[in-house]
Amino acid sequence: MPLEIANVEKISPSKNELRKIFLARRDALPASTRERLSALITERLLNWPPFKQAQRLLLYASFKSEVDTYPLIKKALALEKEVYLPKTYFRPKRLRLFRLHTLGELRPGAFGIPEPPETNPELSPEKLELIVVPGVAFDRRGGRLGYGGGFYDRLFGEAKGARRVALAFSCQLTETLPLEPHDVLMHALVTEKELIEFR
């Protein structure tokens, strides 16, 4: 599966300004609303054929006001899929992928984000079939605005054969984001209202 790169020329407004705007929107959702919308998003993803077919998945442990991924992780484990979660490293700057057997294995890691233990089996990114991707904002071309660390961008370059599906509340979706030539596009986006396939 080819790695599709955004074809854009300039950036305006700044990505940092957009991060503040979209994080504020997401943070403004009441916890009860986030829980309800997260359940709808999870249900859409679970019924998506590429998710059903994938056996080797990279998920992420939700943090702060992100779409709640814990029910998704629990369900994927119950379906006996191989579930991996990222662990953040800074020297060199990268994500390493470790298998998760139970939610009880998660411990706070970099930035306070729950991570699996590095004593668990590790997977090379090129062996992934599907990556569930977090982010701050997304657009209707498959563009993604991340948190600014570049960790997932590096991972996408290593996991060229995996489908990339993002999870977001509809308040995080916009028509177009200011992308750079190296930004990697998503294959799909799931919100509480729709599942959009870009390619």
UniProtKB/TrEMBL annotation:
Q: Which residues bind substrate?
A: 66
Keyword annotations of the record: ATP-binding, Ligase, Magnesium, Metal-binding, Nucleotide-binding
> Where are its TM segments located?
none
Which cofactors does the annotated protein need, by name? Mg(2+)
Give the enzyme's EC designation: 6.3.3.2
Q: Which GO terms describe its molecular function?
A: 5-formyltetrahydrofolate cyclo-ligase activity; ATP binding; metal ion binding
Catalytic activity field? (6S)-5-formyl-5,6,7,8-tetrahydrofolate + ATP = (6R)-5,10-methenyltetrahydrofolate + ADP + phosphate
| Coiled-coil region | none
**Binding site residues for ATP:** 15-19, 144-152
What GO biological process terms does the UniProt entry carry, in alphabetical order? Answer: folic acid-containing compound biosynthetic process; tetrahydrofolate interconversion
Keyword Transmembrane helix attached: no
Q: Which family would the database say this protein is a member of?
A: Belongs to the 5-formyltetrahydrofolate cyclo-ligase family.
Please report the name of this protein according to its UniProt entry. 5-formyltetrahydrofolate cyclo-ligase
Give the originating organism: Thermodesulfatator atlanticus
